[in-house]
Each structure stands twice: as C-alpha cells, then as structure tokens.
Amino acid sequence: MIMSTVDGQSWRELLNPKPKVYEAARDGAVILLSDILQRMNLTERSSALETKTKDGDQITTPLIIAARNGNLDSVKMLLRYKAVIEARGTVKVDDQVIEGCTPLWAAAATGHLDVVELLIDRSADVDGRTLTNSTPLRAAAYDGRLDIVSCLVENGADVNARNNFENTPLMVACYNGHMSVVTYLIKKGADMDLQDKQGNTVLHYAVERGHFEIANELLALGVSQLANIQRLTPLLLASNDCKIEMVEYFIERPECTKEQRIEGLELLGATIANEPDVYDIEKAFSYMKRGMEERYEDPSQLLLKKKMEPLEVYQKKKESQTLGELALLEGDDHAVHMEGLIIRERILGTDNTELRFPIRYRGAVFADSGNFDLCIGLWGHAMEIGQRCNQPITDDLKIFADFFCHMVQRNCLPKQKYIEEVFERAICEYKRLTEKMQSKNLKGEHETKVLKEELENVVYRALYLLTIFAKVQDSSKTENSALFDLIERFLRLNPRTLEGNTMLHLAAWSKTPTEEHYVRDVCKFPCIATMKLIMNAGGYVNSVNNRGNTPLHLAVTYKPSTGGLQVLRDVVETLLDGGVHEDLVNSDGKTAMDVAGTDEARRILSAKSRLELKCIAARAVRKFGLSYFGVVPKTVEKFISLH
C-alpha cells in the first residue's frame, strides 16, 4: 500500500514529529524547528524535547545535539520552549564517545564559545559532569580553548575538578601542550602538586609529551618533583621513556642532586639497551658509564650501588660496581643487555610493572634466536612481577601457551617444569580473579563482565597447557608428576567458561576455540590425552554446563572427517568408562543420544548402553510427574532432576 503524503512528508512522520525536532536541531534548521514546535501541544512538545535519539554513536536530546554542533539559534529556540538544560546524553567528539554529557559539556568540548556563554547565562551547571566525571572546563582545557576556559572559570568552574582517573584540567592542558591555558589556570589557583590515580603530577604530564616550555614554566613556578606510584619522578619518567633531551635538561637543573643525576643517567642507559624503538647499544653503554663516572668523581665521597642478589633469569650476573668492571662489558652486547635489566630492577624496585615490557622484549629476542630457555626464564620473571603487583597476566598466559605450541611444532619440546611453573601461575591468577569477583568493590556491570571474560581466558590457557603437557609427557608417569597435583588444585576451584563448560567439557568438545596461531595447529579437540589427565585428577564426568549438557552431550556432536571416527569412539568410550550417565537430560530435555551428530555416535552409545536401575527409576519419576522435592534426600532430588 502506498502511503499518502502531505508536502513530501508521510502521515507517519506527521503523526510522530519527534525525529523532525531532533533533525532540525542537529542541522541548525531553526525556522523548521520553530514551525514544528509551534504546532505541538504542551505534552507533545515536552516529549519531543526530552526524547533521546540514537544517531550513529550519539544518543542525545535535541538540545544536546544542537549545542554539540554549535547551532546557537537552535539552542535559543529549544531553551525558549523549556528544553531540559541539564539533560544527559552520549556525544562523539573527534574519535571519542563520551557518555553522560550535558549541553554545556558538549558545547565546551567542541569549541562553541557563543553556545557556552548562552547556556551559562541560562544557569547551566558549569561543573556538570559526564559519566567519567569530566567537567566542561576539562573538555575545554584538553583542546586548549583559552576563551572557553576563561569563560567557565570566570563563572565559577572548579579549576581543580577531578575526573574518575583523578586528573585535573591543568594536567590535560600540560599533556597537550597548551601553554596559555596552563598559565591561566595556575594564575586562577589550579594546584600544581595534585596527583592522579597513578601518582602523576602536572610535571609528569608535561614530561611524558616532551613539552619543555611547559615543564620549564612549572618548575619556575615551584612545582614539586614528586614520584608517582611507580616510584618515577619526572626525571626518572624521562629516563624510563628514553627522552634523552628531557633527561639532560633535568640533570642540569640546580635542584637536581648528584644521586638523582646518577640514577637518571643509569636508568636512561639501561632502558635504551632494552627498548626496541630507540635501541642503540653504544649510546646505552655511554649513559651507564656517565652514571658510574659520577659515582667515582669524588674519591672522598664515593656513591656505591646497592647490591642486588643475582637472579637465575639474568644468568646469575652481578651488576658492575666499578668503572673497571663496567669496561669489561663494552663490546659485549648481551652483557650490556643483562646489565641494563639488572640496573632497571635496582632503580625501579622488584615490584614495579614498568620492568615488564623490557624483560619480555629481551625474552622475545632470545626466542627469535632459538635460545628458548633464556626466553622462558625472562618471560616467567615478567609474569611473576605482574602477579606480585596484582596485575592481570592473561596476556602472559596466552603468550606462553602459543610459544610452547611453537616449540612443539619445531620438535623442541618444552621442559615439564616450564609447563608446571606457568600452570601454577594460571591457578594463582584464577584464584585472584575469583576473589576479586567475590569482593564488594566491583564498579558496575562492565567491570564484572571484564572479570568474567578474564576468568574464561585463564580457563582456556590452562586447557592448552594441559594439552601441551599431554603431548610431551610420558602418560605412565603422569600421576607422579607435580603437574598432576596442580591439576587437582585447579579443578577444586571449579573453573568454568561463561557458558558453564568445565575443563572436561572443553577437552571433549570439537568446537572448543583455539584462537592463537600455534595453539590452533597443536591443540586439537577433542583430545583423549587431555581428557584422561583431567579425569584422573578428579574431573567430574557428569558435570553440566549452563544448558544442562554433560561432557558426553558435547562429545557426541562431533562430526569427524574421514579417518576421525576412531577419535569419536575413543572420546565417547572414555567418558562412558569414566562413569558418565548417558541418560542425563539437558535443559531441553534431551539425552546424549538425542543430540548425537552422527549415526556412528548413536551406534557407540547403543552398544555401550548400560542403564542402571536407579537411572530407570529416576526417569520414571520425571516421566509420570511424581512429586519428589522435599520427599527424598537432596542428593536424590538432584539425581532425579538430571534425568
């Protein structure tokens, strides 16, 4: 049926003019906007002004989108008709999608001074915050809009307002190099010594982006050179980021002590030796040498290094203590690399996450050259540091699983102790994440979702590690291995995926995901050896997932290609021999026989069928609808409910 139209509009559009209000406000079509609003009654108009429209990534009221686009006359018109001035919406600014924006925040972030002035004149909240607690002043300071910054401040905006990361308008102005905004905010009382969640001050922000002029101005105005939570002062931050000119600038300043100068030089050299983007072995050595020369410059007051216990991962090497010892390293790139890693650990501390990337990078270099033992040692050390600092290690587990598979492909089997060490880290990570899930400190659904995904990732990496172990270990010795005890420990935590699958479900299922390149080639599922490892360690064969499926339900869906029938037989028979009940029903009331994907699977199930009397009785209770809850013991209730 053809829809009748009036002046090019469908009757549907005329009957529901809300989208037209939004579009007119968005496009600055003020005459059309006025015409539509005038024709509405009070209820229709109020609804149209408050309705949020999804437009690409943006979800806004007409007033918010008009303010975001700088349509001053449209904003005036909407305010005349009592649009909510503190409405909240989702706005896209450049490539960022910001939730919880007010019209004033949207106008300030997109640089529309005239709209900002109008909204303030109409009593908009100058500190109206987004979902992340960003204020209009922070948005304007970020873009360096001094005109809007001054307008907001003169009208009472909080110059020290913090967002969820506890950074301030002054911090973001320093970060983006907006000198005029920095000067103005400090003049208006912005606190230079506030620290964000990571302990960074405005000086850290300026140093990170290499803004010399701003750093110089802040220091001239008396900013404190505080350390952040990684124990990095602005000087050490410059050294750790390999900002050579910034380091030279700081160590020449009169307030820089000799000890600070030495640490800045040594950390710079140590980092250059293990940072791929600025790697220069001669330059790295020269800065280490300059630091050592400073230590011995005054014979009457030597500044000796703190001695560190030599570590196996650094080949038990000790850090050079004298110029003579350091000179022995010159020309030996490997020795300088190790020296650098040891220096970094001494200066930054052994519980510092900043250590991790250079250690992992150096390990990767060893991996590329075929030195797998050194690589694994360094990667394991980086992972240990991460756990010590309560940081996620799911990426480390992913890297190890893929790397071990790479070794298997190269017929260079990883040592059992390496797999055990990584698997133990996986257990610790699963426990840490589980405890975090059970705490009351989670901030909303998003954090809960992220944690659940991390837990699932650990389950998959643990599965891959077991599958790799099954390929490299003599099965007759499995129960005597340390890994067997670790598997038991892990299974006691009841690890499951988001779909509720246990380790045994995953080992028996042909659709278990294997995303990483080498893992995909080496870890093929279903895997009999992995299943047996899990079952021997106490994996329960009758566990059910969120859909009520046992491992057998998933196993019989396997549709093998030519030559794969024996795998199907072995998987099904292994589960049946392990005591799985083939008559258990899932959430759809289906048994394994009902969901079997092939005739062969059905034949195997029929041939091995051995229904026990208790199973027959349980099915009869369900079939005839007999009451049993509260009549029989709880364990029997559960048994009946599964049939």
From TrEMBL:
Keywords noted in UniProt: ANK repeat, Repeat, Ubl conjugation pathway
Alphabetical list of InterPro entries matching this protein: Ankyrin_rpt (IPR002110), Ankyrin_rpt-contain_sf (IPR036770)
UniProt key word Acetylation: no
SUPFAM superfamilies: Ankyrin repeat
Placement of ANK repeats on the sequence: 58-90, 99-131, 132-164, 165-197, 198-224, 547-587
The organism's place on the tree of life at top rank: Eukaryota
Record pathway: Protein modification; protein ubiquitination
Gene3D superfamilies recorded: Ankyrin repeat-containing domain
Signal peptide annotation: none
One family name in Pfam for this protein: Ank
Coiled coil: none
Family: Belongs to the fem-1 family.
Record-given protein name: Protein fem-1 homolog B
